[in-house]
Amino acid sequence: xxxxxxxxxxxxxxxxxxxxxxxxxxxxxxxxxxxxxxxxxxxxxxxxxxxxxxxxxxxxxxxxxxxxxxxxxxxxxxxxxxxxxxxxxxxxxxxxxxxxxxxxxxxxxxxxxxxxxxxxxxxxxxxxxxxxxxxxxxxxxxxxxxxxxxxxxxxxx
Amino acid sequence: xxxxxxxxxxxxxxxxxxxxxxxxxxxxxxxxxxxxxxxxxxxxxxxxxxxxxxxxxxxxxxxxxxxxxxxxxxxxxxxxxxxxxxxxxxxxxxxxxxxxxxxxxxxxxxxxxxxxxxxxxxxxxxxxxxxxxxxxxxxxxxxxxxxxxxxxxxxxxxxxxxxxxxxxxxxxxxxxxxxxxxxxxxxxxxxxxxxxxxxxxxxxxxxxxxxxxxxxxxxxxxxxxxxxxxxxxxxxxxxxxxxxxxxxxxxxxxxxxxxxxxxxxxxxxxxxxxxxxxxxxxxxxxxxxxxxxxxxxxxxxxxxxxxxxxxxxxxxxxxxxxxxxxxxxxxxxxxxxxxxxxxxxxx
Lengths: 157, 347
Fold this sequence. Notes:
The complex is a heterodimer of chains A (157) and B (347).
Chain A: E1 9-12, E2 18-21, E3 34-37, E4 42-45, H1 50-54, H2 79-84, H3 86-153
Antiparallel strand pairs in A: 2-3, 3-4
Chain B: E1 2-3, E2 6-7, E3 20-23, E4 26-29, E5 35-39, E6 46-50, E7 56-64, E8 74-79, E9 83-86, E10 94-103, H1 107-118, H2 125-140, E11 147-151, H3 158-161, E12 173-175, E13 179-181, E14 184-186, E15 192-198, H4 199-202, E16 208-214, E17 223-228, E18 232-236, E19 243-244, E20 260-266, E21 272-276, E22 282-284, E23 295-298, E24 300-303, E25 306-308, E26 314-321, H5 326-342
Parallel strand pairs in B: 17-24
Antiparallel strand pairs in B: 1-2, 3-4, 5-6, 6-9, 7-8, 7-10, 11-26, 12-15, 13-14, 14-26, 15-23, 16-20, 16-26, 17-18, 18-19, 20-21, 21-22, 24-25
Helix pairs in contact in B: 1-2, 2-5
């Protein structure tokens, strides 16, 4: 025996995420970002997966959005300690400055290294080109010497 | 309790009537299961839930996009659980679901379960639910009576696959091996099942049908079900024709597949019909001549008492019976396809 029908339950499925890509402003440092909007959340993410996501713009796509906790940096001294012992505070400030300078110098060095590598590559390319031209000239010179020798043997010159 | 102007507590109920009552804000039938809120709602799926119903052997779930269930996403989806994961939906869309409970088993289905048990076979609760619903669907569409033998091919054993759902007669006899699984009986190129159904003794010249549900698509000179001479067989040579009680050469040649549900049927002396996967009838004007005085073999042809054209196909259903009209063949296909879908072996 089959019973009559139960009561009716309605249920609405969730929306698919809406993906919006924002263009990079001219003249600014390239920065890639996406806004992900779903019925339950709005998240701003930076991601190397942009190329993958771009392929799906305008199409349904399902993926997980994770929210890593922002690192919380605890200062080595409190403000109260700073007030009570300015010498330590200055030492700390100097340490911060030195760290910043060190990081900056590392960045500068990396940039300089990058520029040098590019110039080195250009020089190597030019050297290859000149070597090839020299070989061509050398071959041409040999051919001319041979031709002159032939003319001499024929008594033309 | 008031229902509009009607106080339903004063309505006297007859033997087959049911009473509606309020459960919270919902008016529900008192002798029906109670559906509860969906869980696990996602973009393309959700889990439908309902309370257990006393004595229920399985439940029938409907899912629709319309609150009046004029169309269906799922219709009579059978489950033995009190929840069901509905998948393949559209996002941001409202769906409605309702459920019915089946209490006990149909007496013919129960008799089949008993025969399987007597033969030391066993059936899962899902298989029992699927078989019971098949019986109910066949009876509801008046195609139970025309059946003489139905082999649901459940139970993953020779003992269970050999049983005839319709009656205790025509229990099959397997020969030369083959294998059995939850998907049915699988021939091995030399094996077959003798249905012990003699066509001349038990059949009717101008009202007969054969059906098989093949899960294998392979080409070759095979016969799935039949006896010869005085051809009475279903699908030959890559599933492209059948013959029902006619010694004339069949004219069907339009198919190039051997899987799915095939029905060969004759309801008159002047033509026979062939159906594949619920499609339109392919009509042959071959007249009936005579019936073979032989048992029908499944998985090959009983050719004058010798097995011939044996297959290596997998069979998930077979039936023998009276002729079926186009309408009956359509109902038959729907019932068998629902049966196979419940068992997750549809093709």
